[in-house]
# Entry
Amino acid sequence: MKVPQMIAAELRRLTASRMATIALLALMCVPIIYGALYLWANQNPYGKLDQIPAAIVVADNGTSSNDKAVNYGEKVAEKLVKDGTFDWHVVSASTASKGLDDQRYDFAITFPGDFSQQLASASTDAPQRATVTLTTNDTNSYLASTIGQQAAETIRTSIVQEVNQEAASRFLLALSDIRSSLSTATDAAGQLLDGTTTAQTGASTLADGTSQLASGSATLRDGLNTLASQTASLPSQSAQLASGAQQVADGNKQLAGVADQAGSLAQQAADAVPTVRAQIIDYMDAQGVDQATQNQILAQLDTLGTKVADGNSQVQSAVGQVDQLSSGSAQVAAGASQLAASAPALTSGIQQAATGASQLADGSAKVATGAASLRDGLGTLADGTSKLKDGLQNGVNQIPASTAELRAKQAKTIADPVKLDNSKLTSAGTYGAGLAPFFIALSAWIGIYALFLIVKPVSRRAITALRSPFRVTLAGWLTPALLGLVQMIGLYAIVAGALHFGVSNPLGTFGIMALASVTFASIILALNVWLGSVGQFLGLVLMVLQLVTAGGTFPWQTLPAPLAVLHHALPMSYAVDGIRQTMYGGSSSLAWGDVGFLAIWLVIALALTAVGVVRMTHRRTLRDLQPSLIG
# Structure
């Protein structure tokens, strides 16, 4: 009897009656039904989160922000309902509690009464962390509770971003106001610098004039002294003296006018100092400049103001002296005129003129000194004012100009500065597709296991007749292997066709599915040949072990150490990994490694089966003659 004949004989036996055929068809459909129903039920649960009922309890009493009433709890609740990620229901606390108990809601989010106040406290001197309460009930659904925790974390992140964005908006607006005020202070400092420069120019003119006055007064004094010593020639020179004295009087009058103008400018500069100082203080207070910085700026400004005031005092004193000089020179002119008219009283008049000229020379020297001090003081004030203007301008330049639109973008970036760019080397697509490799492999094992409930591992008749262990082994393996291939064809059609799961490499995926099925058939065949029904039971135990060690749901690295060792040894782990590689478009080298490992299991299992068949051809046991229920 040849191998095809043995296969055909076994198939005829399996379809000998209507009930046998129905049983075979039912067992053939086991992996298809198991895999299809499970993957269909879990095809894309995360795409239907909007069907999960969840409660929102807004107990928030609100607060006031910038003189406006605000309720962050209501705002967040409205945003959640509008987003529609879950089937949100805004209810009272008692309704939410009762709904969690009677399974109307899977979880509840509660915003407590002080939620808004705690959020607003971030900008006060007593900041507090706001609390959002997540209430779950694992008797409803543990996975729903887990999803609720993820939703609460997402809500927390969203609230943090909103609060941070509002705080950043306030900060950027305040910074913009500071820049505007600094610009105003810079303009005021510029005006002060312009006034100081004008006063400095006037002081320089006054200094030049008083210097000329001092020189002329000294000359007059010397001349009068010479005249006094030469009174003998006075009558002949009195007319010339009267004319010269009148010229001096006229010049002094002009000088007095210039001095009065300089005194007015100096007085304006001195009067402007308190006003400018008060403006600068107001600007710095408005911008929130700390007191230490204000004191440093005011100390420099007060030094300059003191010098301006001192210079003004000296100028005013000099102006008074110039006015005295003008009055004195007028008197000298009158005396000279009288001298010319009254020669007898000339000696006395000359002496008086000499005395007045000495006073004039002394006063002019003092005026010149005061004018020079005023000029130097105004120069120092101009330098300090220029530094103040430059400092204020530097502060303005360091604060970038902004618009309302730019501040909104900056606040949004500050609130959420990092964006997650999710890059995937491969992608399953949906939750169901992610589970598909595991349940395909598990279904392949279950399908083969179910077939061996009715398929005979080896033909006793063939063993007796042929005495060919290889052909008996091959026939015993090919029958369930071919039926398993039919199962994989149906399961692949469900996965790729009915459920529309993406398959990157269809041929490779089905190839590994087929290889896994025929490998599992060889393993269960070997167990049955060697141990009978006990081996069939061990096939079930082996399935359970692989169910937990294949790494189909959680990463195998999370397994306890003994189970992790089994993960690397048992074939279903490699079937799952190989289907993942070909289905998701992963590494072809890894897929070929998985194929190699499954092939090793296939060869070893067939070799063990052949050895068992050889044993059966050479001797018979009591179990062969009277097989028991447990082999």
Summary: The chain has 19 helices and six strands. The two ends are 27 Å apart (CA to CA).
